[in-house]
Amino acid sequence: MISRRIIRTKVLQILYAHVTSSEKTLRQSESELQLSIAKTYELYHLLLALPGEIKNYAEGKIESRKLKNLPTKEDLNPNLKFINNRLINRIFKDRTLADYLDKNKLNWSNHQDLIRKIYQLMVESDLYNDYINSETDSFNTDQRFCEDLYSTFLISCEPLQNELEERSIYWNDDLDFVISMIIKTLKKFKSENDVNDYLMPLYKDEEDKEFTVKLLRKAINNNQENRKIIENYTKNWDVDRVAIMDVLIMELAITELTDFPSIPIKVTLNEYIELAKYYSTNKSSTFINGVLDRITKDFQEDGKIKKSGRGLMEG
Question: Which domains are present in the chain?
Fold first, then answer.
């Protein structure tokens, strides 16, 4: 589930914490990196369970309205399309998801005020009203609603964003990515009776897992060496005055260029320029791009970059 881009982002964050602290050991930083990635995986499961919690709240509202002294016709004959959503109920009954949540003590039970706020915002949305008032009733319709619920509603739901920020510092930058992974998960379901396990694994494969550990370890161990390389290519700049995040982005790029022969040069450069755009300014990304371009060309000429496979040497 964890993509290479997210791995690079989290390694950058942990590397920053490591070099700005005189007390952290390599082992501590590696443990923190694994924890950060595990937290992203927790958020994936927790958000998958969220529509089921909203559905439970909606059911409670329906039952309470029926018990009113003077229930209306609508109270007695409510629209049940949302609480009968086939995909929401399929995921709600998924034992793998339930077991993971239980094992990691993840739930929404102590956050019913948040569930109420999300429900109220949802029922006021065009997305919800178009769905429950549609005459089309099928698994595909339910599935499209769930995908849109995440991609257009939950992703920008302010109460949810605030709650996630309060619950874990590791979730601050994860919401967009996790929701994209959830949508991929939802698309895999073929029917409400589909019994296959569609939950994504933490890592796509063993290679990605090894990449995560090796990237951080190499970057930390080669920190001083990579910094000197950057100093040589920024002689017109005082490297101590270059933003530390810019320096660390370049250090990670150099590490990947020289220590990961199976990753194409172009992929590495593009990924770290994108990271620079997110964590630095537009001027920083242009500066980093120029420095890395010169380093790459010189390293290729000197044979310091060795790539295996057709096309991997292209810059």
Answer: 4-188 (no CATH), 222-302 (1.10.940.10)
